[in-house]
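Archive entry: two folds, one per protein. Generate the first.
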Amino acid sequence: MQTYIKYLLESAEESFKKTIALVAGSYKPVTPGHLYMVQYYAEQADEVIVLISAPKSAKSVRKTAIGTIITPEMSKQIWEIYLKKYGLKNVKIEVSSEASPITAMFKYVDDNLKDVNVIFGVSKKGGDEARFKSAMRYYEDNEHINLLDPIETAVEPFKDPSGKAVSATDIRDNLDKPDEVKAMLPDKLSDADKEKVLKILTSGPKVESISEDDEEQEVDEDSIEPVDETECIHLNINDDVLKTAIIRAYNTN
């Protein structure tokens, strides 16, 4: 059965042989919903790159019920457990140096990809896909990147059989209740896998070890709005600082 994304590729005026999907987030921690997104795109694309953003400011800290934080490296370890259990062999996990997941995706494409179809993986939860409203314009003059419209390729939010969507906050806030957290983890995980995940989640550094003076600030994703479509910015640039500024201009007020 032909999927909608493959239909978009086949109906495109120009497309390349290989398709790469990017799925970015801070994953504090990884939830079944995150896994569902990656599974979906892994079936549509030749390869999926999961980018774990790395916010460093004290403002970006999300404390767990036991007073620890979840680092990008911990999230990567959890992802690797999930990928192995679910047999997702075409998925690669990378820790990005970017604080913003959106910036991480744009920069990964600009710095690493050429002559490929690209999917920006995003959920329709809360209208998240609207954050990428101007993404098509960013790459419209790039002959080496065929970006599929993120509005068209966004996925519906995942819910468990009871109709509930487990959030990262749910897991963090219940980390002092191991049995409850285990019930929130992906259903294919064995008891041993769940114990490994819990061990990772409870091994993080204490909040007090994060410096309040860190100048790096995470973009508040909830405040991101699409840029005015009437704006026109020349994007054929090489300077990384300027490129980052323009990427953010395309996705923030």
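Generate the second and append.
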Amino acid sequence: MQFISIKQNFIWPGTVCVLVFLWFKKMRGLVLIIATGLAVWASDSLGAMLKEIIARDRPCHILTNVRDIASCSNSFSFPSNHAINSFTVATIITLAYKNFAFFLYVLALLIGYSRVYLGVHYPTDVLAGALCGIVIGYVGYKHVYLKIACLLKTRFPDIADHERPEAKISNH
């Protein structure tokens, strides 16, 4: 649980996935990576702001029997930024490429569960983070990814159509 809860453990696998994705998806992949980055920035900022406003102490600060499980952050608990960020990524990528849904949502659920298991969040922190992440991922897909993709398609039709002529970008 500690391994899956540490963000740095995903740097190399994430970098490899991004490079492979860019290799195969080119312009659409770049647009998705930019939109996902902006959505995660927004979700992380929202989570940090809500933590300061709500100011809920972490369970590891209150419950003595969970202090030794994991190192406890000095920030507040509600909502879980791990959950917000992982569900934002899962949602925006899944909306663009449905084949990744199972893997990404299972990973996001495991990350959220690890935060509760380690005693650094309450289940409601993770649930609120997941809901916020899903909403932000949806908004990021609809209002960032699709708009940039449509803009590129109208401005540079040869580049956008060259990648996958059968793939149509739609506002469903």
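Annotation attached to the second fold: The helical segments are 2-5, 11-54, 59-62, 81-96, 101-117, 123-155, 157-163. The first helix runs from residue 2 to 5.
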